[in-house]
Each structure stands twice: as C-alpha cells, then as structure tokens.
Amino acid sequence: MMSLRLFKPTPSGTAGLIFAAIAFFVVPLVAGGQWLNVFTSMACFALAATGCAFMYARLGMVSLTQVGLMGVGGWVTLRLNYLFDLPFELNLIAAMLVTALFGLVLALPALRMRGLYLALVTLMAAAGFEILFATFQFPNGGESFWGVQTGTSTDFRRPALASSDAAYLRYLVAVVTAAFLLIELHRRMAPGRAWALIRRSEAAAMASGVNVTFYKAWAFGLAGLLAGLGGGLLAGSLGLLDSGTFKASESVMIFALAVVGGAQSWLGVMVAAALFRVLPAALNNVGLDADLSFVIFGAGLLHAVISAPEGLAGQFIQFIKSVFKRDQAAPPDQAQDLSPQQSAPPAAASLPKEAKSTNAAHRLEIAGITVKFGGVVALNDVTVTFNSPVSGIIGPNGAGKTTLMNVMSGFIEPVDGTVRANENQLTSLPPFQRSRWGLRRSFQKEEVADDLTVSENILAQIDPDTMSATEKQAQVFRALEFVGLAHRRDVLGKDLNTFERRLTDIAKCVAGTPRLIMFDEPAGGMSVAETNRLGDLILLIHDFCGAQVLVIDHDVELITRICEETLVLDFGVKIAFGSTRDVLADDRVRAAYLGLDSEATEGGQVDAGN
Amino acid sequence: MVGSKFFNWCLYLGLMAAIILLLTWGKPHKIVGLFFVSGLAVGSLYALGGIGMVVLYRATGVLNFANGAMGAAGVMTAWQLGEWGVWPPLTWLSAIAVALVLSVGYGRFIAPALAWREPVVKAVATLGFALIILGLVSYLWIDDPRKFSLPTDKIGVRILGLRVTVTRLIVLAMSVGIVVLIHQYLTRTSIGLHMRALANNRDVSALIGIPILRTETIAWGISGVIAGFTGLMFGDLIRLEPTVITFMVIPSIAAAICGRLESLGLVLIGGLSMGVIESLLTLSPYLKSVRPIAPFIIAALVLLYFQRGRRLSFGGAD
Amino acid sequence: MKLALTFASVLALGAYAIPSQAEAAPKCGLNTGQAATGKPIIVGGIHGNAAPGDFSASTDAAKAYFDCVNANGGINGRPIDYRVENDQWNPELAAQAASKLVKDAGAVAMVGNGSFMEMAVNAATYKQEGIMAMASACAISECFESSNIVSTNQGPLPSNLGATQYAQEELGTKNVGCIGLNIPNNGPWSCQVSIDYMKSKGGDGSMALLNPSAPDVNSALLEAISNGADTILMNLPAGLAIAVLKAAEEQGLRDEYKWIAPTPLYDLSVPKALGDYWDGHVYVNAELAPFQVGGPDAKNWIEVMDAYAKPEDPRDTFAQSGYLSATYFTKAMLEMDPADLDDRAKVTAKIKSIAGYKSDLMCGPYYVGDADFHMPNHAGYMLKIENGGFTIVRECYEFESAYFDKHIALEKELGLR
C-alpha cells in the first residue's frame, strides 16, 4: 500500500510527464538549430532552479548560490575532460558529487541560520564564487591545476549517446525529468516530511525527532548535486564556459525567477528557466532590447511577491482548477481523497497493545536544574520527582514553566542539574534523540506543518523508528482514531481548524512508542467543551500507550481534574510540590499564584499564552 | 550586554590590525602607505553603501537590494544633465532627488503591501525593484564610455605619499559624519525615537500609537538621500556604468553584515577594514589575484561569529 | 539617453553628412545605381552588445555597405540578405546565434562579426559547418588562431605590441606594465608578447591583471607601478582604460610615467572624456587608418555610413573594419561564378583564396589563405591625444615579433612580400 502511494501520479505530475514526453519526442524534431540551443540552456538552468525552488518551497530557505554552484559543476566537468580520457557521464557524476560537497560545506553556516541571514551568507558565497571563477577561469585544456592555457581551447567530448544538438536536448529532457522525480520522491518520503516540519519550526521539528542538522545539510547537498549536474551539462553543450555566466547577480536572478514562476511546482521551475533563457532569446528575435527583460523580471518578481505567493504557475494551476470546478460537481482531487479511506486499514483493536502500559514504574527525576539568561536566573535549583501517570506544572506568567519544559526537551542547556526519566539520563542527549527515546511534547502554538496531510504530520514523528512502512501506517491510524481525527487524515494541515490542529499535535505525541509526553498549555484558547474533551483525552493517554504525562496550564480546574501531582513554580523557584489538592490548599501557592488570579473568572482561563 | 558589545568591537579591530600587520610586514612604508590610502578610499564607499542600507533596515525591516540601482539612476541623470549643460551643483542635487523619489515612492506605495512579511521576502521584493530600475536605466543610456567628475577631483592633498583627492576625503568624512548625524538623530528627536521603537518591535510600536507610515517614509527618504549621494560617489570614483553601480550593493551588504545590520559604527569600521585588507592583499603574491573576495569572506566570518550561540529558531522568527 | 543620443548624432550628421551628400554618392559593388532584385544571398553577422561593451559598430557598418551594394546591382543582380544577431557577451547566446544563422538560415558566410565571446564558442562550429567568418572586431586569440575565422582588425596582441614598440623606440621605455583583463585568451595572451618584446630589447615588463568585475582599478595601477614599470600599457576596453587614467590623475601620476594604449582608446569621445589633464600625454595605437588620413576608401566609408547607416551608429575603428570586411567579401563574391553563390563550400573556398586586396584604410594587403591561423593586419599607426583629438605621431609601421614569423612566411608564399 505504501509503495503504491509513493508512486501514484498526481494530476500535476501526470501533466509534467506528458510535458516531458512532448519535450523529448516532439520538440527536437520541430525546433531549429537556434531553439535547440535555447532549450538546452533552459534545461541546464532548470536543474539549478529546481534546487533553489525546492529549498524555498519545502524548507523556506533562500539560497542565492545556485548558479555559482553550477559553475563548480562545470569547472569539474571541464577539468576532468581534459585530465583523463573518461566518458562524459563519469565526469558528470564526479562533478555532481563535488558540487554536492560544496553545497554541504555551504550548509555548515546555514545550520544555525534562517531567513535573511541565511540568504545573505549564501549571497556572500555566490560573490566569492564569482571572484574565483573570474580569477582562475574555466579549464580549456591547459596543464596546471587550473587547466587554463592562453590562446585557443582544446576540443571537448560530448556524451556518446548525444553528439548532435537534437540528441543532446533529448538527453537533457531525460535528466531534468529524472531530477524532478528525485525531488518528488524526497517530498513523499521521510526527508519531505522532515523538511515540512523544519519549515514550520525548527524547535518543533527537533521535538518530533527530526535531526534538523542532517536534513538541512541534506537539502543543501541535494541542491548542490542538481546545480552541479546543470553546470556539467551546460559545459557539455558549449564545450567551454565563461566566468560571466556564473556571476552572483545570476544566482540572485535565478532565485528571483523561481519565485516568479512558482517554487512549489515543476511548472513554476520550468517557467523560471524559460524566463531566464527563452525570454531574452525571444525578445532578441523580435528585435527588442534585452535590457527590457530585466524590467519584465522585476515587475514579475514584485507581482509574485506581493500578490501571487505560488507564482505564475500557481496562478495558472488555480485557473485550471477553477475551470474544472465549473465543469464538474466535485473537484477531482477531492474525489481521490475519498478513495483511500474506503480501503480500511487494520482496525486499532487488532493491533498488539503497547507493552509499556503494564510497566507502571514512572519516575521523572529533575535534580537541581538552574538556568540563567544573561544575568537573569530563570530557574533556580529546581528539584522534583514526578511519579504519577499525569502530573501538572502551574505558576504565574514568567514563573519558568515553559523554560523547565525546554530544558527537558534539550532546547535550553541548564547551567547545572540533570533530568532522568525511568533511570535514563536525558541531559546529555540532543533534542531529536530525546524525541527518539520517547520524549514527546506540544507547544503553546500548534505546530502542524501546513503542506503535509494530517497523517503525514504524524508519520513524520515516527519516521526515525525502525518499523516497517505498513506498521507505521497502522500506528498513524491508531493514533488518529484515538484522538478522533481518522476521518480527516488526508486533509492538509493548512485546512484544519485550531482544535483539529491541537488534536493532531496530541496524535503526534501518542504515535509510536512514547515514554514521556509534555503538553504546554493544551487548553490555551480552547472553549470549555473543547477543554473538557482534551482533558478526557489526556487522561486516556496513559492507558493507550503507557506514557507518563506532564501538563502546563493556567486552567486550574483542568489541572485539578487530570493531575494527581502538581509542581508550582514562581520566579524560577519551586514553591510547592505534592498531590494537586494539597498543593492548591497551600498558603504560599494561594498568595503567589491564586492571589493574582482575583481578576480572572473563577476556574476559567487566566491567560491564553505568554 | 554592553560589555560583550565592546568586546566584539575590540576583537574585530584587533583581528583586522593583526591581518594588516601580517600583510604589510617587511614591506616598504611608501608602498604600504599607497595601498592603505587606496583601500581606505574604496572601503569608505563600501561603508557608505552599507550605512544607507542599515538605516533603512533598522527602521523598516527592509534590506534594500535596490540601493545601488537607485544610486545608478541618480548619477546617470546627473551625468545627462551635465551633458546638457546644466549648472553642476544642480545636477548633483538631481542625482540625490532621483534616488529620493525612487526610494520614497517604493517605501510609500509598494513596501506597505509587504509590511508584515518576513524580512527575506521584503528583501527579495526590493530586488524586483532593482531589476526594473536597472533595466530602464540600461535601456535609456546605452553602453558607451562615459566619465563623471566632480570639481573636487582636481584638488588633492598628499597623505602617506599618495595624492588623495578631496572627493575621496569627502566620502570618508561623509561616512563618518552620517554615522554621527544619524546617531544624534535617533537619540535626540522624536522621529528618531520612533525609528528605534520600530526597530525593536513593530507589533508593539503599532499598538502604542507610533505613526508607522510617517516614520517609515522618513526612513525611506533618509536612505534615498544616502543612496543618491553614494551613487554619485560610485559614479565618480569607481565607474560610470549602471550595472557596476547597481551590483556594488553586494559588497555594501558585506559591510552592512559587519555591523550586524544594526550598528552603524561597526558598518563603518567593517567597510573601511574590508577596503584596506582588499587593497593590501595586492602585496601578497599568492592572494593578489583573488583580493576582491576579501569583503565576502570577512562578512561570512562575521555572520558565523554573531550566530555562534544560536541553536534553533521557532516558526516565523528570523 | 536615447533621446539625447539622437540629438547628439543629429549634430554629428551635420558635421559629416551635409557636405558629403553635396559631394558624391557612395560607390558600392557594381555601382550600377539599379536595385538588385534576384534571389537573396544569405550572409550572417554576430556582434556582442551588452555590458561591459558594445561591439555592434562593425555589423552596423557592414550592413550599411551591403545595403549600398543591394541598391547598386547587388552581386550580379542578387541582393545580400544580411542577418545580424547579438550574443550579449554570453556564450550560450553566441552558440544560439551561430546555430540560427549557420544551421537554420543557411548563411553562406559570416561577415563583420565583433565580439569578445562569439569566436571562442563558435570556432569549432564554423569549421564543422565549413563556413568562413570574415570578422571585424575581434579581441581574443580564437579569432586569429583558428582555421575558419579571419579578422580585418588586429586584436589586442599586435596593437599592444605596436604601442610598446613605439614607446621603446621613441619614448625611452625600459619597463612596461601591461594592465589587462584576466581573461586567458585576451589579457595574458596579448600582454605576454609585449613583455617578450621588451625583454628582447634588454628591457623588462610585467602584467597586472584586473578582474572585469572588480570595482577598484586603482590596485591594478598601483600593482603595475610597484612592479617597477616606467610605462603603463592599458590593454583594456575604453571604459576601464578611462577609469585607470582617472585614478592616475587623482594621484598626480601623469608626469612620472608614460601612458600608452592599444586601439580601443582610439574613439573620438575619449579625448573629451579624459579632459585637459591628459591632453598630449597619452599615446594610442590605431590598427586602421585614422580618420584624418582620408583616402578614397576612407571617404567612401563616410559616404556609405551617411547614406545607409543610422545617424546614431558609431563611426569608429570597428565601423571601418566592418566596412572593410564587407567590401572584401563583396569583391570576392563578384569574382565568383554566379551559379556557385549558394554553395557554401565554394564560397568558403573563394574566401580562403583571397590574397592581396588593398585599401587605404589598412597598412598592408588583405589576404586569407588556407591556414590554421589568420592575421592579415599587423601594421598600424601611432597616435597621440592632443588638442581634444588625435594627431598622428607615426605613419604605417610593421610590428616586430617572432609571433608573426608564420604570417610572414604565408605572405611570402602568397607572393605578397
């Protein structure tokens, strides 16, 4: 079932394959010499554009080095061509690998950066590549390491399969199609889900067991691989390269055009590559100044950024969809969404119950945790041991509740202290490994990836587990049934309401083999009925999967109802701990916390979040 | 916090001094002087470009890639008017006016549509604006050898054995002067206070009634004037070619990065040191051919240094 | 600004056109005065026009001449259909342009090409397709060292050498610093021969290479000086050479060094752009006859330009060169059997057989020959920027270098020496 899903073509994918078939069979027959060359260039730059497009669409990362990396691929291809007598394809593969390595090196700074700073560091890299290419030039058959000789260049070997221009274009169409399929395969598998979570929030991704470092580096490597491929193929089409092709401004331009075209789809990437290489040739053919293409690019970019977030391709696809909607009663993709639901997965009842539910020895030991932000002490020597299936943490805003949870997740390094759960030392593990150990959590804001379906969101959590694909699907379904979202499992994250998003978060926490689940204000912003439903669910978690549960909330009524033990924090200090009833009766607690509560309605929500 | 900032300054200055010492060790003073002064001149241009960008970024959250293009449009206009025989001071003012109009026009009519997007999207949008300006400018002024001169080019003084024109001294003085002036403006005036509030937190600023549109328009205006002046200086001191001036924005960004996109003083120091090191690299037989790479490597290292403590970021927070 | 340019060229038109139109109509091809109406002969041309330089002057002038030929009987009654493409300094566009002209349109020859890029990309294509390119504005080694390209202009190598030779003989140069672009088949290739020349004369020389994208030309200038040069050779496009001279002016270096340059600086707008400071201090080599020489071909060129070119098309060395290539091509075609004009192989053979065409615009005879190298033009004039214009300081002289040994051998073989 899994593999069928993996290879099932979408309508857009089918259209893409038809487009590729036309490009392969028809275009080389009808295009003249000039247009063969134009389309060849376009295909090479489409490969580079794919790289920055998927990074932008899937991870939200702006890479402004793609054309510079193409230069690296081209350089390696040319150098090897003159160095050894190997076939073109071997040189090309070497070029791809070397460029992927450059991409990975570039990823090192990116691991800590996002957004504008990441874009800037890639821009600096592109500017550096520009200088290097301008200084050392591209190999043309010379002897030294740089392979440059003054005077005329030596001949270049094209692939044996594709020595004519038409055959070379076919060769490229096949390569570009394969590249698109590679990206699509990533999207449908664990890396795609991990990327979607990273894009949503790196913290949430780590809390879901995603090795953020690895998957970010992987994305850069993949983009580098594609750029290297494009550069090598460009070198193959011309037989020589010029440093002017790989300026930083070109890298910036190809990214800009990927946004104009639409980074989300193959069509957008093709539009970008066409704007980059076909539009100037077309303008030239009708005798218009090529400078005007800059004006068109610029206007297109402003339009795309302001009013067409999915680019020209997105607008076109919307248009096609609206035409189909008018024609048919039900939109086609919705009809497809219904079909998998009919083939019912194994019922939850038939699954073996988790062994851990019988293993009732819960012991979460927090010992001497101290956290400082600059000069401010956020947590001061907090020591507590939770033994109950469901425990609570309360305290006024700024008391250090979320900070304590972040320490347990591994997001904040304490100055001192340890966290042990069931005799396992957690303090030394990085966040994603704590998640893989069985530490799950939700955040004050629901962290559901918009561009994944509900079941994919949950699958992302158990991707690192060593279960078979079928077993994982069954786990996902079981978790969804538990929270009551099974009927919504193929809906995209962005189409859920707030309560459904929160339920998805809970399903993520209970899927697989969780050992400790932490909820940060699960009832924040929920209605009374929804809060009750959440309370019921949390009480059932222990029986469902055997995990110990820790809840932060301001809703004292909820805490009273579900937690056996409760910790009270104030200004980073433990002021009380014990059975919830005793703790709430404590005078210090009433003074510090409930006393502040006078303006809030009794038992209602004090605060929606901090 | 103040202590660590001071430490960063000292560390940067110390490192730069060490590199400079390493490059110039054992070289004749006369030659070192020549390259040092020449590098200072280029560096002050980098710094000037970076300062204009940081002033705008702090107040509006927009890193303006069109900074160079606006300057290019300005200086080309000045050249054209000069060709038509317009009184020179008027042509200089026209360069600044053109950049001002372009900057405020974008800030007033296009930027508000993107006010709540992430910084990187805002930056990408200005790139679109840069392309439009560049396309139009290259269409209007077809490629041709041109030269733009200011009367101050003819007057010079000798520093460290190198004749330095008054124009270059003006650039250096202006880059220092602008840093001081903007600092005074931000600390002494109410609009300056508003800008600082916007730089700290837009959402809160809007809630407490800061006149966002007015404050931002003034910031766009100030950065437009600086861009026009920078363009004029680029055209005079580097080359009068729209494409070259437009993409001088990249080393300017490198200077801006040195100031972490917020500290004008560091932008100035960063720009100057980049120019000097780039120029002094000519003295190294191995590195002289790749010397223009210096600003980008320095900027990348500074970015890495500033980001060293960061481990993760939550959704949408950049 | 386009508007301003038109305005300026109307003035220029006044200077050139009005007196010349009063004099005589230009002479082209058969000079019959009858428009050619037969089946067109397709001829291609590629120029590079984008930042950092405009090389379209050569194809503009070739087009003007072919239009004139078509209005005057064409090639024995058949007009030339001259199609021009722009490579925009981009290797991909250069390959596309060649495919379009050579493969798609089936041109029988290429005439007037001017580019930094096109020849390197397309030299192999021309050879493979068996077509001859009679280029006019070449700057890179491929133009002069491949079998199917011949250029009327000299390119930087001979022009640099000519300037260096003059400086060594007349200005007392001992050490030349060549500032060139860091493009292997342009800067290092063309600087090296001048350095070798200085060494052969007991002097010395060095290169300071400039990244085309580097904003700061001053470091290159300082590098040349710190290498011990007494003469600065600016082997650069005009815009960059002006930037170097400006940096030198700022530092008051004019009188300490001698300033020489190859042909790109021979442009009537340069003395004005440089201003009074440089007047009388810059020496420029010219690879074709300077405008004031004014022989019959020089006059006819101006007349053709005035009658058939756009007023804003430049009248510079590259335009002369494009005009010359077009006249040589026309002359060769008129000598052919009209039945063979559509046969590319025969046209190529005819072009390769050209030997001994003469013009007052060029110092030596023009020839092609069947060789893997072509450089018919390796003699020139030396000029000095003076009184806001150029004055001739040395008439036609041959440049001395071992590089030309094979060319001289070929010329002897063709009976031209």
Tell me what you see in this structure.
The complex is a heterotrimer of chains A (610), B (318) and C (417). The longest helix of chain A has 27 residues, at 33-59. Chain A is α/β, with parallel strands linked by helices and 610 residues long. Chain A contains 25 helices and ten strands. Residues 329-359 and 597-610 of chain A have low confidence and may be disordered. Chain B has 318 residues and is an all-alpha fold. In chain B, helix 2 (29-60) runs parallel beside helix 6 (166-188) and helix 2 (29-60) crosses helix 7 (190-200). Residues 312-318 of chain B have low confidence and may be disordered. By secondary structure, chain C is of the alpha/beta class. Chain C has helices at 2-23, 57-70, 91-104, 118-129, 156-171, 187-200, 218-226, 238-250, 270-274, 296-308, 317-335, 344-352, 405-413; strands at 41-47, 49-50, 53-54, 80-86, 109-111, 114-115, 133-135, 137-138, 149-151, 175-181, 204-210, 231-235, 258-261, 282-286, 355-357, 366-367, 379-386, 389-398. Chain C has a seven-stranded mixed beta sheet with strand order 11-10-12-13-14-17-18, sandwiched between helices. In chain C, a hairpin with an 8-residue loop joins strand 15 and strand 16. The radius of gyration of chain C is 21 Å and the shape is globular. The chains are: A alpha/beta (610), B mainly alpha (318), C alpha/beta (417). The A-C interface holds A 32-34, 36-38, 41, 130-131, 134-135, 137, 140, 142, 148-153, 155, 165, 234, 237-242, 244-245, 247, 277, 280-281, 284, 290 and C 50, 85-86, 88-93, 95-97, 99-100, 102-104, 117, 120-121, 123-124, 141-142, 145-146, 182-185, 188-189, 192, 211-214.
